[in-house]
């Protein structure tokens, strides 16, 4: 019997605000941060997890992680693994902690870090990457692992089981295909708001040359500016001369690109406002960007405003522009309502704003039932490492398709992870294959030592420089 004996936490912050990486209309000076936890046992087995934040407040999440982790100390790991849905319910059900949630805010993202750490430990114990552990589940095991409370009006366990059984026979084919091809990705890092036009143009050309065909740009600070930058990006992605040697343009009216406003080379542009507008303002502003032909507007307004998203979607539909959201949708009930209200064209789950893999599974199941593609949010630090696992689970075991999906990719900070995600020469995520990597979120110890806040070597030096100036 292996028991959880304790945990370690680290408040790790990277000084990304110095370079303008990650800047958008709402978040103007982010220090990408990880509220990191390692669950320890009385054997060699450990489980790593983290939640992403953008700087100040990471210490508050760490405090919450400790409160949530306390409940797991003394637990038998095999008992936890045997019914991950029950484990999730137990983690959510602390009779006192739930008052500062429930299932929202700091306590929920902290629960995400800890639930992910339990899943990481489970995958390591079976010597499989996390995605492989889950796709090898029987349909019954997968349904049992999901967080089902409060969503049975949208999907019942029986319906979920039916859907998974239908897909089970062809899982192997899909696994083989995605191992060969990789999983489709898109690039956000060319279009941060804090970058100059020249930098945007250069990065866009580099992204096209690297094989990407979906690109996202941040908008919402200034419409004329957005139009100008959007036209710069379109002029590059729509021009066949920038395609990688030997690459042919894709058919913009083909099944995979249908309804995405793809240009002549098959390139797709998405835009992201990070919640800056009121509903009517969003509608007017985005109509004004029709010339740059976006597939969707992401996070046009407050992330909790389900009916607002529905109104925006309805108003933009005649203009051929869709709506996406989810990186700030804090639990499965928000996604349930977004789907029920027909408010979104794309589901953008976040791997650690939802409370870990168990809650993600329930959203994947609902999205598949409603026929809406899941394109997870990533970037930040650690998120790309996490989400490739989730998209593989979606493709192989749940929705059965990746033709219209694209997984966000941002090329920052991967070097701090022992098993970093990677992209192949066709602009697609490689499948994580190391049997020891679990959920791929283990950080290098020297990275933690350098960037731990406030006593890591980087922050001590930065403080000394500030004092000397
Ligand atoms: Mg976004």
From TrEMBL:
Looking at the record's lineage, which domain of life comes first? Eukaryota
Regions annotated as coiled coil: 154-181
Annotated ranges, domain Mandelate racemase/muconate lactonizing enzyme C-terminal: 197-319
Q: Does the keyword Coiled coil apply?
A: yes
Required co-factor?
A: Mg(2+)
Tell me which SMART domains the record gives.
MR_MLE (SM00922)
Alphabetically list the UniProt keywords.
Coiled coil, Magnesium, Metal-binding
The record's annotation in SUPFAM superfamilies points to: Enolase C-terminal domain-like, Enolase N-terminal domain-like
Question: Which PANTHER family does this chain map to?
Answer: ENOLASE SUPERFAMILY, MANDELATE RACEMASE, MITOCHONDRIAL ENOLASE SUPERFAMILY MEMBER 1
* Protein's name in the database: Mandelate racemase/muconate lactonizing enzyme C-terminal domain-containing protein
